[in-house]
Every structure is written in structure tokens, then in C-alpha cells.
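Allow me, if you will, to draw on your knowledge of protein folds for a short while. I have a record of one protein: its chain in single-letter code and its fold written as C-alpha cells. Kindly check, if you would, that the fold set down in the C-alpha cells agrees with what the sequence suggests. Thank you for your consideration; the sequence and its C-alpha cells are set out here:
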Amino acid sequence: MNLHTIGLIGAGTMGNGIAQICALAGINVTLLDISEAALEKALATVSKNLDRQIAKQLLSEKQKLEALQRIQTSTDYATLESAQLVIEAATENLDLKLRVLQQIAAQVSADCVIASNTSSLSITQLAASVSQPERFIGLHFFNPVPMMGLIEVIRGLQTSDGTHALALELAQRLGKTAITAGNRPGFVVNRILVPMINEAILVLQEGLASADDIDAGMRLGCNQPIGPLALADLIGLDTVLAILEAFYDGFNDSKYRPAPLLKEMVAAGYLGRKSGRGFHAYA
């Protein structure tokens, strides 16, 4: 397929990051959210990110302007009518995603591929909510999207070979490496990563070491570029909790039980970087 128009639902961190790399790859993007304010914030974020690339001499001013011109914003699902691929990047909540996917399916053509950026929910279950579920697939991008080189491509039970091939083609066009995963909670990367983050939170909860020392230990002792608690703050503690709860429900295994401290911090609104406070403090 000559992919030239993509729809994106959700203008938050993941949505605006995906919009940015698609626009830089020459793909027209229709970015949807529930409010004009969220869309304006997303465009401002993309513009600021492109300015950073210009400052590093990785991009020209002309390329920035061309990329921004490829991103159209809307609050109306009807604008997705001409999209060949729509990626849902809404909050990691099953009921919300199901509602969004049904609205997408009601507007796009029967051969439009529909994808979810979910990091933990069942692709098979999400696919069952739309007509022609064989056109549904998981495209799990990583944060920050412009910098991270990986896309997890997740096949549901219904996903066709053609849909899978299109997903791999898109990853290549975006300059990303794709790995294909089966439909299990957390897929590959989060299945390994998030339990490690949860264990780091349990270590902090037990008073075994400070947050700074835990992160320093993993950075300097395991050669990780960022410590697990700082990474949790970057991901968002509410997202980490949602992933762990999906694991706990999906596997029915107590080893995935979220740390009580994590649940308490989310309840307090200490969500990490986006709230200014998590395991570390942010300006």
C-alpha cells in the first residue's frame, strides 16, 4: 500500500510523538483529540522538538515547516474518512479504547488498517470490537517516540498477513526497527521491564535504599541509561500501575501484583514527570 495518510487518536505524549515522526517521513497526519487546547499543546510540543533537531543540525527550517504542514488537527472523527491507517493512542484504559475504536471503525473505509498503541491490553480483544478484525494490529511505540528506535508489532488472533506486512513497512519507513510479538499481556518489552520497575519500587518501599541509590545502582551496575524509578516517572506512574494490573488480571499470577507504594503514589496524584513529582521531584 502507498501509505500517504494516517489518523492518530490522542494528542498526548505518545500521539504527538508518533505524529512528528510520521510527518517527517512524508506522511500526512490527522491528529484527533477531544479539545482544541490539547491539539494546540501537541503542535507546540512538536514544534519545540523540531527546533531541538534544528539546533543539533539534524533538520533544516524548511523540513520543520514542511513537517508541521503535514499535521492537521481535528476533534471530529469524520475527518478520518480518507485515512489508510488509524492509530489509537488514547489513555491505557480498556473501556476508553473500545469506545474510541468503535468510533474509528464507524468512520473509516472497510480496508483501512486500525492499530492500537496499547502497551499491555489484548490485541485480540480490541480487534473483536471492530468490523473486519483481520485489519487490526498492535503498534507499540516507545517513549520518547522520536528518539526510541523500536516498534513492537503485535498480532492478534485475527490479524491478517497483509495487515502485518503493512505494519512492518510502516516501521521501516519511519526508520524504526520492528519486532513481532504474540498477544500476551505486556508483549515482550514491558513483560520484562515493568516487573523490574515494580521490584525497584518494592525495594524502595522496604527502605533498603533511597530512590537515588536504586537508580544509580541500576545505571552503574547494570549499564542501564536510566534508573528504573526515573524511568517509571518518565512513563507515568498511573501507566505503570495500569500495565501491572493488566498483567495481574491477565496471568492470574501474584508475582505481577503492584507494589502498595505505587498504588498509594498514584492515589496521591504523584504521577512522575507529568505531575512534577514521582519518585523524584521535577521543576
